[in-house]
């Protein structure tokens, strides 16, 4: 018997339908969300209904998506660079901390040991309310994960 399940890349309409028609509500919705693609309405909706949100691309794709899909990384944004300097952290740590303070689970991907270690160094500081708002102003509604460019299929149609 199934006790729980999760969904991936469900928008607010699919999540609503899932909650309406499923006997068991999803435990998690894993989505792309980062400073350039914040998805506040979806996150608030999920949290209101007890669905945990996991950010599968909390750093905006960084180098991999830039190389593969030609997309822009939020880690190069001057706002994050300024905050990184202020807090004496990396731009990635600022983005991860921002995600954590939004009550999302962040799962950054890295194959480099030094970055893996750095990604855990986000619990010894907190972004101010003003800095959280500053990052909120960065939203471009910009999806960096663009498999259509890689595979030639529009998966988000």
Automatic annotation (TrEMBL):
GO terms for molecular function: oxidoreductase activity, acting on the CH-OH group of donors, NAD or NADP as acceptor. Keywords: NADP, Oxidoreductase. The keyword DNA-binding does not apply. The keyword Secreted does not apply. InterPro entries: AKR (IPR020471), Aldo/ket_reductase_CS (IPR018170), NAD(P)_OxRdtase_dom_sf (IPR036812), NADP_OxRdtase_dom (IPR023210). It holds the Pfam family Aldo_ket_red. Residues 3-139 form the NADP-dependent oxidoreductase domain. PANTHER family: 2,5-DIKETO-D-GLUCONIC ACID REDUCTASE (PTHR43827), NADP-DEPENDENT OXIDOREDUCTASE DOMAIN-CONTAINING PROTEIN (PTHR43827:SF3). Belongs to the aldo/keto reductase family. This is NADP-dependent oxidoreductase domain-containing protein. It comes from Arachis hypogaea.
